Amino acid sequence: MRIDSNQIKSLRRAVIPILSQMLSLSGSITSLFCASMISSGITSALKDTRYAQATPVNDIAPQSSLLIDDFKRRFSPAEQTLPGPIKSLLVAYPESLKTATRSGPYQGELMWRDGEVTLWTSPKRQYSLNEWSRLSPSDRETLWMGRPYRVILDQATLAEQLLQIYPRDRELPKRLPIDFEPGRLRDESFFKKMYGSQRREITKTLTVISWGEQRLRVSKKHRIDERLRRIYSDLKRLPRRFHTYYEPSAGAYHWRHIKGTKRLSVHSFGAAIDIAVKRSNYWKWTLKVYGEDKEGRIPYKNQFPLEVVKVFERYGYIWGGWWYHHDTMHFEYRPELLVNLESATGDQHIGDEPRSSTPKK
C-alpha cells in the first residue's frame, strides 16, 4: 500500500499532541529525544522508500525535441547500474516511466509515473543484424528456450522485445536472416500499461491529424501526433517522385487483433501508421506470388526508398521493412530501439557485456 505525503502529515498531527502530553508529564530530556525519534520513525516507516536511491537526478519532463537523436537523460547513480536496454526505455518514454531498480543482473522493477510498479527483464546480450545472421538454428533454439517462434510472438517478454538491435543503416536490406525482426516481438503488457488496455481507455488519448487530404486518429501520448505532423511535413519536402510512397495512408489507429492471433496490433494504441499500400510488400503476399526460395526462406521484397524510411526513423518510428516477415507499409513508434545511449547520456556502451555471435548455453 502506498501512502502519500498528506496522509503522513495527518498521522503526525494526530501523534504529536500525544507525545507532547508525555513531555509535559515528564519534562525530561530523554522524553524529548524519544518523542523526536518516534515522530521521525513514523515518517520513515510510512514512506515508500524502495525507490529512494533510484530517483533521477532531475525528474525529467517530456523530451523537448521531437527528434530521436536529441533525446537526453541524466541518470542517478542507481540508474547508472541498469542494463543498457532498460536505460533505453527510460530515455525513450520519460512521460510514462519514472525510474527503474535492479534486483539481479537481468531483472528488476519499473516505476511508472502513476506510481504502479511492474517487473522488467533484460536480454543478456543484444544482437545486431550481422550477429544474428551468424546464428545457427540450434543457437536460435537456445535463445527461444525450445519454444516455436509463433509462441515467442504471442508471449514475448521485455527481454525478447529488446533482444535484437534495430539497424540504422544507410542502405536498405536485400535479404534478412530468419526471425530477425527488431520491434516485431512485443511484450504486450508493457504497451497496455503505457497506452491503455481497453478500447475506451485508449480512445480518450486520441486526436485527429491531417495527412494530406486524409484525417487520421492517432495517440497524443509521447507527442505522437506532433511527430506525425512533422514527419508529413518533412516528407513533403522530398522530391515529388517520393510522393506515392507516403500517400495515401492506409490508416493509423484501429483497434484490432493481428489476424490469426490474440495479439493486439500496435495500431490499437494509435502508435502505428500504414502508408502507400500500392508500393508495399507484405510477407504473406510475397509467399503467395513467389513461394519460398531454394533454402525454404521467405524471399525479401521491398519498393520503399531509403529517404522515406529515414524521415520516420528521425522521429522515433521503426520500419516493418527490417523484419524477416516484412511489412514495408508499416511504421510504429518505438524510440527505445532507436535511442543512442552514448549521445543521450554519455554512456560508452549499450549493454553490460560484449556482444557475441552465439548465445550462452
What do you see in this structure?
The protein is an alpha+beta fold and 361 residues long. The protein folds into three domains: 5-49; 52-166 and 347-361, no CATH class; 171-333, Muramoyl-pentapeptide Carboxypeptidase, domain 2 (2-Layer Sandwich). The chain contains 13 helices and nine strands. The strands form three sheets. Strands 6-7-9-8 form a four-stranded antiparallel β-sheet. Strands 1-2-3 form a three-stranded antiparallel β-sheet, with helices on one face. A two-stranded antiparallel ribbon has the order 4-5. Helix 1 (5-26) packs antiparallel against helix 2. The longest helix is centred in the N-terminal third of the chain and has 22 residues, at 5-26. The model is unreliable at 18-60 and 347-361 (pLDDT under 50).
The quaternary organization reads as single chain
* Helical stretch tally: 13
How would you sum up the global shape? globular
Give the radius of gyration.
25 Å
The low-pLDDT segments are 18-60, 347-361
- Main-sheet strand order equals 6-7-9-8
Number of beta-strand segments: 9
| Chain-averaged pLDDT | 84
Order of helices and strands: HHHEEEHHHHHHEEHEEHHEEH
* Tally of individual domains: 3
Main sheet: strands, sense, barrel:
4 strands, antiparallel
* Structural class computed from helices and strand pairing: alpha+beta
Strand portion, in percent?
A: 5-15%
Share of helix, binned:
25-40%
CATH class of the largest domain: Alpha Beta
> Looking at CATH, which topology of the largest domain would you report?
Muramoyl-pentapeptide Carboxypeptidase, domain 2
CATH architecture identity of the largest domain: 2-Layer Sandwich
N- to C-terminal separation? 40 Å
